[in-house]
Amino acid sequence: QSVLTQPPSVSAAPGQKVTISCSGSSSNIGANYVSWYQQLPGTAPKLLIYDNNERPSGIPDRFSGSKSGTSATLGITGLQTGDEADYYCVTWDSSLGAVVFGGGTKLTVL
Amino acid sequence: QLQLQESGPGLVRPSETLSLTCTVSGGSISSTNYYWDWFRQPPGKGLEWVGSIYYSGSTYYTPSLKSRLTISVDTSKNQFSLKLSSVTAADTAVYYCARHAPSVAIDYWGQGALVTVSS
Questions:
Q1: Cα angle at A1 between A54 and B70, to 5 degrees?
Q2: What is Dmax (Cα atoms) for chain A?
Q3: Distance in angstroms (rounded) separating the CA atoms of residues A44 and A62
Q4: Are A35 and B47 a contacting pair at CB < 8 A?
Q5: Which of A7, B41, B44, B113 lies at a C-alpha separation of 20 to 30 Å from B83?
Q6: Are B74 and B87 in contact (CB under 8 A)?
Q7: Angle CA A36–B115–A38, to nearest 5
Q8: What is the reported pLDDT for B97?
């Protein structure tokens, strides 16, 4: 069981918007930065969002991140079939002294 | 452009030690403010942090593996390594090496290495 809670799956049509939630506690999301990763089938994860809402160079502004209290959200607009992947939230847990992950959310673009 | 590459046996017998090395190219493993990581992903499952090391040798291990885990760094070879002892089938996974900044922004990943524990 993952320390951070994500919905197992989300889906939306091409061109639409989707949000993926990540719920934690005061010792992880509530106290530390959150990052988000995209994992296409058979490949290594790729950094999409860091420091809650910052995008690395090369990541389109269709991807956005936000954090409020002990929850974080990844938003994806203008969905494309190439966005079909697993998405993970990650942060540090100050009580556990560990990097913690969400269980992952599978995005289907219908 | 920084690149990380995992290497090591793809098959390990139960009760033996799993050993992997990550070679860093295109940058120095002695860069300040960056940590060098091992993650793993069992087949069909989510990602799990295994542990991290700083170039100075300071280590950080996931609690559930701490008794079996050793992560070390060789700055002269620009490499860091993982050793996991007394493995079982539950340790079968794709193992990734990676780098992260203090905010746990994991910005570079290796391609991953599948390690199967089986007799």
A1: 80
A2: 40
A3: 21
A4: no
A5: B44
A6: no
A7: 15
A8: 98
